[in-house]
Every structure is written in C-alpha cells, then in structure tokens.
Amino acid sequence: GAAMLRSLGSFLCLWALRLPVAPAGSGAAARGLDVASYRERVRAMFYHAYEHYLESAFPYDELRPLTCDGQDTWGSFSLTLIDALDTLLILGNVSEFQRVVNVLQEGVDFDIDVNASVFETNIRVVGGLLSAHLLSKKAGVEVEAGWPCSGPLLRMAEEAARKLLPAFQTPTGMPYGTVNLLHGVNPGETPVTCTAGIGTFIVEFATLSHLTGDPVFEDVARKALKALWKNRSDIGLVGNHIDVITAKWVAQDAGIGAGVDSYFEYLVKGAILLQDKELMSMFLEYNKAIKNYTKFDDWYLWVQMYKGTVSMPVFQSLEAYWPGLQSLIGDVDNAMRTFLNYYTVWKQFGGLPEFYNIPQGYTVDKREGYPLRPELIESAMYLYRATRDPTLLELGRDAVESIEKISKVDCGFATIKDLRDHRLDNRMESFFLAETVKYLYLLFDPDNFIHNDGSVFDVVTTPYGECVLNAGGFVFNTEAHPIDPAALHCCRKRKEEQWEVEDLMREFYSLKKTKKFTLKRTSNHGEGESPKYPEDAPSEKSGEKRNSKKNSHSLLSCPSPSFNSKLAVLGQVFLDNT
Amino acid sequence: RAKDVTMPAKLPVNFFSFFFSVIDLFRGQLDYAEHLRQDSEIVLYFFYAPWCGQSIAAREEIEHVASRLSDQVLFVAVNCWWNQGKCRKQKHFFYFPVIHLYHRSFGPIEYNFFFSAVYIEKFVRRVMTPLLFFFSRSKLLDFLSNYEPGVLGYFEFNASPQPPGYLTFFTSALHSLKKDYLGTIRFGVITDKRVAEEISLVHSGSVYLHRHVNTSLIYPNDIMNFTAENICKWALENREMLIRWLRPHGGKSLLLNNELKKGPALLIFIPYNPLAEIHPLLDEITKVALEYHNCNKSQAAEPDLQHLRDSDSPAFDSSVPDAHMKLSETFSITKYPCCNTVVLPQWHSISRTHNVCELCINQTLGVKPNKVHVPHCNFLEIEAALDSFYLQEHTFFQVISNTIECSNFLSFYSPFSYYTACCRTVNRHFLSFISSEKTIFQTPKVAFSSHGKKDNTQHSIPHIEDRNWFIPDLHISGTNITGLSCRTNKTLNLYLLDSNLFWIYAERLGASRSNHLKEFAAIVDLKEEVHYVLDQNQSLVGSALENFIKNFSILYSPLKRHLVDDPPLHFHEQHVITEVSTHTFHDTVFLSEKNVLLLYYAQWCGFCASLNHIFIQLARLLPPDNFTVARIDITRNDLPWEFMTDRLPTILFFPHQRKEQSVKFPEDFSVNLPNLLKFILRHSSLSSSEPCTKECLHKEAVLQQGHISHLEREIQKLRSEISALHQAHNQLEAQLSEARREEHRLQQQKHTLEKQHKTLQLHSEQLQATYDQKNQELLEMAEKLQELADASENLLKENTLLRILVASREGKLQSKDETKESLQSEQILSEDNDISVSTAVATLDEKRIDNIDTVETEHSSGNRTE
C-alpha cells in the first residue's frame, strides 16, 4: 500500500553512497529453514491479532492494541474486517470467511456522512470486496447464478466505487483526494492530490467494469492515468503532489516511494491484468528515467523532477515494493540486488524505518517508525517465486522473529513508533492483517492456491457461457487483495468472442475436407475484426528464430532468465547482464 | 487520551537459556564484558540483538561451540541493542550478531562467515593456536603439500625468553586472521636447524612463503620492515592460489561474478568438515590441481606431489603408481593400425575445401589387451570413424589447398579409439571417378545409431568423459594433465565449495536430487553461457577430474553443454496441458504424431501467468487426438540453443509432419482465443491435394468423429448454460416477485399515506382559517391599541398644556393673595387623575411606554430649558 507523503525536506548536501555492509550469513541457509514451523507461527500471529480485533474493536475500523479498543480511521466500514477477509481464505479458514461475508452484507453501509480518502477506500474497501467476491465460490459461499458477474459483495464494491466517482469530476480528470460519501466533494476541498492517489485505480476499476459491464469505472481510471502521463516532466519523471484543477506540480520530488509508489505498480499490474500495451509502454518509459536519474548503486533516491538533481538521499520503507514489481516483468537480477540493499536496513533495526538516510546509514528525524508495513516481505515473496533463494526465506524468518519480539502485545500487534528504541504506538493498521501477514504466510507456503501456476483450474458455467477460473496468475492490488485475471474475461463481450471461436472451430473440422479453399477463407475470416490476423503475418522459421530481424519485442513479455541467474543466489549478484 | 498512548520497549531478558558456558550480559554491560577479558587468554564476544532472527539462529551454534571449548575459551554474549545498555551506546553495528575474538590483548578479530558451529570452532581454534610447530621433516612436508598457502618462520629457541622476531611473527599470524577470516594462509614455526635447512632457511628469524609452482619466497628483511602487518601483507600478496575455496558470506557480494569473469571455472563441490584431521578427497583434488598447474615439470611441485602420493591411504597407493605406469605405456602405442581413403560426399561442408580424406583408426592396445590387433580396417570401424568425422565437420576450415591437413578426433561411439584424418583436394574428374564409393559409407548408419542407443540405456545421459573414466590415461590428441594449464588456451580456474553450505549452487547447475554424497563437479563458462557437468553416476575421484579437465581443454571438446532439467513439481491434475521438461522435450514435440503448440513460460513472469486460462481454454477446445498444447518452464529447463527464446511468453507451433518448420506466434498480436485459433488454423498441416485413399477416408471419419464429439461437448456446454440461465431466470423471477410484492406493499402504503395526507390537508385548511381569523383579530386589536395610544398621547399633550397653563396660572396667582387657596387644591386633584390614565396605557403596551417615557423626559427636559 501507499501512503501520502506530507512534507519533503530537502537534503542538499554532499554525500557518498555507503556500500551496503556485508552481513554475515547463517547456517540456516545450509540446513534449510523449517518452513512449516514458520508458517504455523504466522498463522498464530494472524489469529492473535484478528481475534482481538473482533473482541475489542469491531465494528470500528481498526484495533488499538495498547488500550484494547477500537477506532475509526479511514471511514467507518469495519475496515480491518474487510481487509482481512481474503487472508482468512489464504489461511484456509473457510467457515470464518463465510461468516464474515454475512456480517459485512448486513453491517456495512456506505450511505454515511463521512469524509473518506478516495485512494484508501478504493484499495482497501473496493479491492477487498472485489477479491472476496471472486474468491467466495472457492470459499464455499453459496453464490448466485450470475456469479462472478453478479453477487452481493460485487454490488457492495460497486456501491463503494460509485461513491468515489464524484471525485473524478475535475477539468483534468484527476481525482480529488477526499470525498464525502454522502455529499460528494466538499466545497473548498483542496485540489492537491498525491500522484499515487491519482494513478491507483485501474486494477480495481477495470475489474469492476469488466464484471459489471459498466465502463464508467475503467474510463475514469484511464483518464486519470493519461492525465498524469501527459504532465510528466521533460526528463520523464513525475512529482509527488499535483493540483488536479490546474495540473501544476505542487511537490516536485520524484522517486519511487511514498506518494508515487502504487502509480508505477498499477501501470505494470494493469498491463498484466488487461494485456494492455499502452500502460506497459508508459511504465517502461518511466522505468528508463528512474534508472537514469534516481538509481545509484542499486538504491533509488529522490530527485527534482525537472532537473534530475538529487533532493533526498533516502530510502523509504514504502519503496521496498519495487523489487517485487521488477520480478513481475522479469528484471530479477536488478530486483535481487536492490532487495539485498534493503535487507541490510532491516538487519540494522529489525524493521524498515519510514525514511533511512543512505549516506549516514541511519534513520531520519521524525521518520523512525515502522507500522509493520508489508513491502519488503511482499518483494521477498515475489522474488522467492522467481529464484527460490533461501536468503528470501531468511528475511521471512527475521520478520517473524522481529514482529513477535518487538510489537506483540496482549491485545494484538502494535505499530513500532521508533525503531531506535522500539517504542510502541497505539495502532494496528489494517494492512497488517491484509498484507503483512498474508505475504509472510505465502512466502512460507509455496503450495498455496495463490501460487497456482496453471496446473489446476475451475470451470464455472454462467448464464454468459463457460469460464475457466482460478488458473493462477492472481494480480495483487496494492493492498494485497488478489484478483483473478481470468474473471475479467468471463462477463463482458463474452458472446462475440464465443461466436467467433465457434466459427473457427467449425473451420477446424471442415479444414481437411475443403483444403485450400478453406485456407483462403480462414485468412479472410479475420477481416473487419480487431485485432485482425493478417494473411502475411510475420512468421519465422525455426532456424531464423534467434536472429530475428525485428528488434522490437512485444512489450508484454519478460526476458528469458540469463545464464548468470543460475548462480545468483545466497547473496551473489552479477554485473553486466545482457 | 488513548490516541497518544505509547509503550516503551519491553525490558531485556536472558537470551541464552541459563547456559552455563556462555555469560549472557543481556543488559548490554559492555564495561563488565571488557573487564572479563582479563580472566581468559581467549575470549569470544557474541554481540546480539534479541529480536534478530540471525542472532537467534546463531545462538544454538554458539552454545554448541561453547560446550566444546568452554575450558579454554570464555564465551561472553552481549545484548548490543537495548538502548539503555552501554554496548548500544558505544558500539554501532549495522547487523547482528557480530562475533569478536581476542587473543589476550590482540583483537578484535571478527568472525565473518556462516554461523555454523564447525566453522566457528575451527576459527576459534585458529585464534587459540595461530602457529603450528614443526619438529620433524615429515610433518613439515605435510604442511607444505597442503593446497592452502603456508608461511614458515625459523626461530631458534635457545635465547630466552623468546627469540627475536618471534613475537612479531606470532602477531602477524593473528593479524592474517583479521584480514583473511577463513584463515587460508597457515603459519608455522620451525625450531630445528636441520629441518629449516630443508627449505633453505639458515638464519633464525627468517620467514619463508611456500609456493608449489612458482619459486618459494623468503621475506625480504632488507626491503620491508619486519612488522606483523608487513609480513601478513607480503604473504597475502605473494601467495599462490592453485585452488581456492569459494565461500560467499550470504550478503550481497560479487564474489562469484569476479571469479567467474576471469574465465572458465571448474567448481568442485565436496562436503567439508573443517574440524576433520584428514581430508583424503581434498588431497586428491589438490594433486590434480598441482598436476594441472605443474608447467614444465617444475621441480618445485615434484616433492609435494611425491609426498602426496606417499601419504595417500593404502587404497590410493596401489592405484596411483599403476596409473603412472600406464602413462608411460601410452606413448608406445602402435601408430595408425589401419587406414582407409574416403571421398567426401558433395553435400558435406568440408567438401568445399577438401574432398579426399584418409581416415586412420588408432586403438589403445594397452587398455584392451584382449583385443586382437587388426591389420586391415574393419568395415564397421571405418564407418564409425566416418560418422564421428562428419560430426566434427568444423575440423577443417582452410581454403582449398593441395597440402595435406591432418587432425585427430575422438570417436563418438567407442571410447577406446581415436581417429586421424588427413584431407586434401583432388581434381574434380578424379572425384567423379571414385564417387561411386561414397554410397558404401552411407548405408549402414542404422547399426551405429542403435549402438548409440544401447549406450543410452546404460547411462541416462551419456557423457564422453564417463567412458574415458575407465581408461584414465588415454591420451586424447596427446593431451596430458601435467602442466596442461600452460599449454591450453582454455585455462581453467579451480574452485572448491563446501557442499554442506553451498549445495544450492550444485543444484542450480544440475546436480541430481539423488546425489546423497553431495559430491559434484562442473565447469562453468560465464562468457560462453555454458556449463559442463562431470557425470554424477561415478564417484568424484582424481582421475575422473583429470579426464574432465582434459576433455574440456582439447581443441574439439567432446563435452556437451549440460542442460538443467527440473521436472515440474505439479503435474496437471486435469491433464489438459502437457508439461514439458528438457528430458521430454524431444519426445513430446518432435516424436509425437500431433500438431504441437508449445508455450515457453516462467511462473514468475506476470505476462505468462495471466495467460493460463486462455491456454487451458484452448486445450479444452482442440481435439486431443490431433493437437497437443504443451508448455515448458524455461527457468527450470534448459533447451538446446536452437530452441531457446529470449522473451517470455513465446508461443511456437510445430505442425504435424513438418515439425522442423516451427512457427512463432507473432508478437504484435494479443494472445487471445480467437487469435490463437486462427494462428493454428493457418499453420496446421494440410493434407496435400492427393486423391483420397482409404486411409484418407479413415482419417476423415476420425476427424468427423472428433467434430461430433466436439459438438456434443458444445451441446453439453450449452445445456449447462441453459440450466444456468434457468437458474438465473428463476432467481430473477424470485427477485421480480419479491419486487412486485414490495411494490404492492408500497402502493398500499401510498394509499394510506394519501389518506393521511388528505386529512392533514383538511386539518391544515382549518388551521389556516383559524389562523386567518386570529390574525384578523390581532390586527383589530392592534388597531384598537393604536387608537388607545393616540388617545393617550393626546391626553399627555393636553396634560402638558394643562401644566403649562397651571404654571402660568400659578405665576398669575402668586401675585394674588392667599384667599384663593381652595381653588388650587382642586387643580391638584385633576392632575392626579391624568397620571393614573397614563399608567394604564403603559401596562397594555410596554413599547409605547418607552416611547412615551422618552417623550415625557424630552418634554420635561424641554421644560427645564424653557
């Protein structure tokens, strides 16, 4: 998840990049970590927090673990419960999932006079409800006949999303940061929104549009993304905060962390989910600029968005999602190198401070807290999928030990207020159960259904036709709510495609009967349809495959793993990968 | 307020569970820890943070070491995290745990490697006794023959208390442990003069660095000062690393990158116990390394080698001299026992430059003594030679010349023989004259491929080097391991890895899961992106390694690029998509009688994973009798170069009957079901326009059968769709009737509400009427009041007028006499009446009173001024 970056101090000073210290490894890698026991410890962590929330805080948004009561933080929708719902299923607790679905249907009301963050409501509430809706059949919930294109949780998600739509009514199409759920945008509302607050909708909104058939959600999300793209600086960077009325950048620090993070994340995840080349090409352009201007020694710094000069040599806890994102597009080597840098910071404090001054090697004043954020663990989970490097399990082990030792209190798990002395704060953010625990559990559970590589799947018959679902490739939104990409192809535009496929299948069986004639018809068949498969499609013979004349490859692809990657484990990194 | 509630960190508690061997200073009492150092010669400090996973994991190992060494070493654990503790205030660690060792006042020496008990113990022992003492020659030779560099000092212990320089030498040994935390340079001391002379040390206080291949060095006292740092630096700079341990510490490092970039590397994985007294396997590997680097049969290495041989266990004693006897024999092999002339067919690439070759078969009689010498070439043998020769076609690449070129190459079919080919160019017409002969050489190929297959059954993956193993001293092209490193242009760097710690690298390179010995060797060439693996069915011994190295070094290496093959963990339960691995690739794709659509993917690649459902749908649609939808995880499975792709996902289609003409799904088209079907339709094999035979009809029948079953499936699908629709219909109907009921209820509610509304309306009308009435009344009342007010005002005016009148009268009357007093009293009475009227008005309307009051006061003030 992302958070707003309120103020950015400038650290214009001469500095030298500190080389990451060489941490000593451990015998654990050799003996192999006891993954099963750590998995059970994560499960116990979840229930310790979850049960105390239900007991002491429900129906408030969050638990206050030191005073053992609840409070509303982002609205008033029992946020922790919505956020933790799919974690229950990932832990295999079907009965509790079903119970909570019923509780939410009865108890949650969005017709309330509350000022809510558009961004947070989207990623936590809309995202949580959508993923719960898509997983509900797997969880044994009695679904209605139109599922996954209709259902009570989907209707709730849609209702919540509709409450956010007024925020998008701006001249630029970029949304306000806050909206009143009952009255729309408050008069006098500030037009300054952070970049992530503008560009973090496409995953949830496109899913909603595909499932419900109402294109309005995807349209506004795309419009906002395009507005950001249009307003990037000449050197290809975006700042931190922008005025949604005038499109002037208010905070001009460019980086990959707080205030921007999930914008980049959603460009990639949107491209994957929707097979969308445009989104991917935007990301690749940004990626180039980020590498050029902000990357130093596998750290990513903050720079001035127009000049590219370093404004803050800090690493932020929120930036730790980046290696995971890189692994999704196949940049595993770079991802691992950056991850290892970040891991040294964890080893120094037992958590990641919100800001870490890289040249000084220490926390930044007023930014020493660690609210049990998930980003580094998230990256470890993605990278473990790609490399099976035991170092990543070691991070999981360290996270479990740290969180249990430092932040566990009688009533739950408390935010670490200051990593220097491990003082605790009276808060347990809802992302602890939604993300941190989920990613930890998935790291230690390689056989979880979420990691399905397509070897198992479900077939669902809907009134719109037959769908293949749960075939893996889940896309996590930025609050770790998994979305099944197959579901997006289940509801809208199904019929046209189905008829086309049916026609083609007929060709298939008549092919050999009417030989050449059929071939001609086949090639003409695609005419007028988009995308069309032309007669003279470039088809290369196997011999020419490797030295293909075309240099441009599909944007929606990953590079094959390099030879080096075989040996790039246990902290070993390689240079000059081509 | 609850919002501002915070809680300080919990107080530190014991980290070590009251373990008697370790003193646990969990409050970070660094001063006390330093105080403790006086009590023991050797102290180990374990600085930890209680929350740190690494510290927790290392705790057990430390306890283990402590239980073994507690009588000689003091183990002190210090919590260096608690912010009230001294340790945290004084030390600034970037990671935990940190181990510091002290040898008396010397220190800290940091231990910086895996926290494994044996390695820690070994290191502690090195700190305890940094110097080894040699009194006999044999022990010295043991020391010198070791693969790790050794530094020797010669000190005469007649002088008391210690010979000059000894302490410096001792400190330099400790010093080297600081820099070289694994202690690869070993330090020894010779006390006996005669032993010292063996290595040409004459003067007490001189220091010697032993080297195997290069000449050994004596510390240059005259150039460098005799200090601990200098000795250590000198030894580190000049040491000879014939074979090196690779010990990545686990953090981010470029170690492998830097070492492998130097060139091809032989990585040898062996399980290693640093505490063990003897390492026979390591000795054997050392021997190979020495031989390999022993250029020009240098004298330096010979004594060590000799010593190694002598000190070998009896089992090796017998084998090694044997091998050397064979070594001498191999030179005496009869040359070219049989030859035959071959005319190269025109299609062959060499035929462009040479067209006539003389093939000679060499057989090593020493190895197969039972084989009778054949003076004339056996037909099969020459065919085999030819076959091997064709496979080695790149042997000749010079331009056409009349000179004869010769080359040696290894047989592909028999490890017992190698061939020599001498080729030259002859005139065309001459060629045509004998061209008829060439057919002879092409026919019996089958026999040989079957021979190859027989081999396959014996070893799952045949390696050339396995076969050579049976004859360790076969000299391929005259190659000998001794000094090979200087003769070849493919020099290998040799490395050792402890498979107890780094087996994962072996697994990555293709070590089989059934390898329980955990011994493995591979040559990695980073630049060429290839690696070769020593056959894993045989044990790792010196001779096998030697052959492995030899086969790598020769010009036309028979080694085959190793393809890592990791069979998928999850098989498709529904058997829709065929999961292909390196091993099954050929069978599934080329040998199957079907059209094959192959997807290259990786689980971690987001673009691949989101296509899963499309391929499952496709596989379910296509008739399984004619089509296979397959996929290969490219992260786990290597493929021959020609089938590698550089992007993922890649979709290849291999049409039936034209498997070699694979087609790639164009990248600029989105991967969806209709596009994939069109792609397959376009390229799937079409039977040519030949007239329909019986077979063809049969095929068509099968096809139509397939169609029927497909349609049946479709119908089934439609049926279930209909039922789903019915369900949805019912659901909708239920919702509709619910809605109707609701509507009805609402209608009724509306009616009652309307009625209520009407009555309310009436009521309101009535109220309006009364309101109007009241309003009217009020208005009237107000008017009356107004009248009253006007009246009172008039009265007031009259009153004042009267007062004025009275006053004037009074003035007049003043002059008159007192006789008219009775009249004056009457006047006062009438004045009193006027005042009572004005008070009555005041009670009716206060505002008016106010007005009147002001009027009154005005009047009165006016009166006064008047």
TrEMBL record, chain A:
Top-level taxon of origin: Eukaryota
InterPro entries assigned: 6hp_glycosidase-like_sf, EDEM1/2/3, Glyco_hydro_47, Seven-hairpin_glycosidases
Subcellular location(s) per record: Endoplasmic reticulum
Pfam family, one: Glyco_hydro_47
Cofactor(s) required, per the database record: Ca(2+)
A Gene Ontology term for the protein's cellular component: endoplasmic reticulum quality control compartment
Feature: compositional bias, Polar residues: 553-563
Active site, renumbered: E120 (proton donor), D261, E354 (proton donor), E375
EC number: 3.2.1.-
GO annotation, biological process: carbohydrate metabolic process; endoplasmic reticulum mannose trimming; positive regulation of retrograde protein transport, ER to cytosol; response to unfolded protein
GO molecular function: calcium ion binding; mannosyl-oligosaccharide 1,2-alpha-mannosidase activity
Signal sequence region: 1-24
Keyword Amino-acid biosynthesis: no
Start-end of Basic and acidic residues biased regions: 524-546
UniProt region (Disordered), positions on chain: 520-563
Major place of residence: endoplasmic reticulum
Binding site for Ca(2+): T478
Keyword Cytoplasm found: no
Function: Involved in the endoplasmic reticulum-associated degradation (ERAD) pathway that targets misfolded glycoproteins for degradation in an N-glycan-dependent manner. May initiate ERAD by promoting the first mannose trimming step of ERAD substrates, from Man9GlcNAc2 to Man8GlcNAc2. Seems to recognize and bind to exposed hydrophobic regions in target proteins.
Family statement: Belongs to the glycosyl hydrolase 47 family.
Protein name listed in UniProt: alpha-1,2-Mannosidase
Species for this entry: Phaetusa simplex (large-billed tern)
Gene name linked to the record: Edem2
From TrEMBL, chain B:
Keywords: Coiled coil
Bias type Basic and acidic residues, positions: 813-823
Superkingdom of this protein's organism: Eukaryota
Chain segments annotated as coiled-coil in the UniProt record: 708-798
Keyword Coiled coil applies: yes
Heme in keyword set: no
SUPFAM superfamilies with a match to the protein in the record: Thioredoxin-like
Region Disordered: start-end pairs: 813-832
Domain Thioredoxin: 1-133, 562-685
InterPro entries in the record: Thioredoxin-like_sf, Thioredoxin_dom-contain_11, Thioredoxin_domain, TXNDC11_thioredoxin
UniProt cross-references to PANTHER family, sorted A to Z: THIOREDOXIN DOMAIN-CONTAINING PROTEIN 11
Name under which the protein is recorded: TXD11 protein
Gene: Txndc11
